[in-house]
Amino acid sequence: EGGAPARAREAGALWRLAAATLDGNWEHDHTVPSRTLYPHQWSWDSAFVAVGLAHVRPDRAWRELRTLFAAQWADGRVPHIVFNPALRAGSYFPGPEFWDSARAPGAPDVATSGIVQPPVHALAAWLVHRRAPSERSRAELAWLYPRLVAWQRYLTDRRDVGGAGLASIVHPWESGLDNSPAWDPPLAAVPADAAVMRAYRRHDTAHADAAHRPTDLDYARYVALVDAYRAGGYRDDGLDGRHPFLVECPLLNTALGLAEHALAAIARETGADPGPHRERAVRITAALVDRLYDPVGGTFHPRDLRTGRLVPARTALGLMPLALPGLPARPVAALLAEACSPRFGLAARMDRPLPSHDRTAPDFEPLRYWRGPSWQNLNWLLWRGLRAHHRFDLAAGLRDSMIDLVATAGCHEYFHPDTGAGLGSPAFGWTAALLLDVLA
Ligand code: 9WN
């Protein structure tokens, strides 16, 4: 009785909340993930944000992507942070002086970081266009297309350290899941001392509960890895012999494959040849299965190039290949079983969306960042994957739980996987953006 109109009213209010959150985070030519914690432009955040902006302010969606790609390096890399020069020093750690991109060959005029994040931008550009195709959106696609291709080439050529057709990450920040338990073993091999952090001022712990963030020892290793990469001018040749962290990440490589699918669609729309993109998507998918799938355990794992072994943790990273439409039937079935197991709790009716780590693992931490809390970008990628593999029942359950989460807690950065309490930054960009996309 009255349930449907009440839900509709609620959906309207949620829509307005999400749109207002994106408006509040807009900063002249890009969106900040959070006004307090992340006051610059982040790479994969901008892609997710563009997907949401397409529903409310398509002009800004294109502007967002243009601003990011204006900071692309000569070698094709898209930096994970583009710094806003108008902000005072100390508004984020590590800031522009720490990265020192100006001294690196091929860096753009604007200050950026030197590492990358998952390449979800081609997918975002395609979705923005598809939402409302127009002459304008075709022109934007045509501008982006060669840049997106150069971005793929950077990852598939310079970053193919393992030589098997997958890109490697040189830093946990490149995965986007900074302190995931997946990175514990490869990170443990990076020499560092938590005392190093006394020389720096962390900015994050001034705005978020330190117990919900990576530890000082994590940060000491993050800093050591940037030091090592920066010392080599952020070059990628010879990484194998000199860099202490080299890992093939299932999420980054899933995004790489998704990007080739999206580029095929963009090529078709802009008069280029989609064929090579389709072939690359097939090759990347095959390499993912070949290199990162464990048929016995039935999920995907990162491969640590320094040991040659798969990292055993079963994290949400391992489920992400489900987003690939061409994933073969066996891994699809295995990932569905993994997602529906007590480890992740996916169901056609579920109280909460997925946690970022296996709930049954001894190192599951429901409050600490990527070690347990639920994040809307991972839920969104999985939601798309469920639909790509025709599991509309599970997709609907996941979608409902995503909407409930924000309806109850607001547009937080991440959420307690059991209580649904909002954690981290309030008014977080991609939470708002991806809510718009699932509501639309
Ligand atoms: C380091 C901006 C970014 C996200 C990452 C998330 C977090 C940064 C940090 O915030 O990382 O890049 O300072 O913790 O882990 O996924 O892109 O929202």
UniProtKB/TrEMBL annotation:
<dbReference type="GO" id="GO:0004573">
    <property type="term" value="F:Glc3Man9GlcNAc2 oligosaccharide glucosidase activity"/>
</dbReference>
<keyword id="KW-0378">Hydrolase</keyword>
<dbReference type="InterPro" id="IPR008928">
    <property type="entry name" value="6-hairpin_glycosidase_sf"/>
</dbReference>
<dbReference type="Pfam" id="PF22422">
    <property type="entry name" value="MGH1-like_GH"/>
</dbReference>
<dbReference type="InterPro" id="IPR054491">
    <property type="entry name" value="MGH1-like_GH"/>
</dbReference>
<comment type="similarity">
    <text>Belongs to the glycosyl hydrolase 63 family.</text>
</comment>
<keyword id="KW-0326">Glycosidase</keyword>
<protein>
    <recommendedName>
        <fullName>Mannosylglycerate hydrolase MGH1-like glycoside hydrolase domain-containing protein</fullName>
    </recommendedName>
</protein>
<dbReference type="InterPro" id="IPR004888">
    <property type="entry name" value="Glycoside_hydrolase_63"/>
</dbReference>
<feature type="domain" description="Mannosylglycerate hydrolase MGH1-like glycoside hydrolase">
    <location>
        <begin position="38"/>
        <end position="431"/>
    </location>
</feature>
<dbReference type="InterPro" id="IPR012341">
    <property type="entry name" value="6hp_glycosidase-like_sf"/>
</dbReference>
<dbReference type="GO" id="GO:0006487">
    <property type="term" value="P:protein N-linked glycosylation"/>
</dbReference>
<dbReference type="GO" id="GO:0009311">
    <property type="term" value="P:oligosaccharide metabolic process"/>
</dbReference>
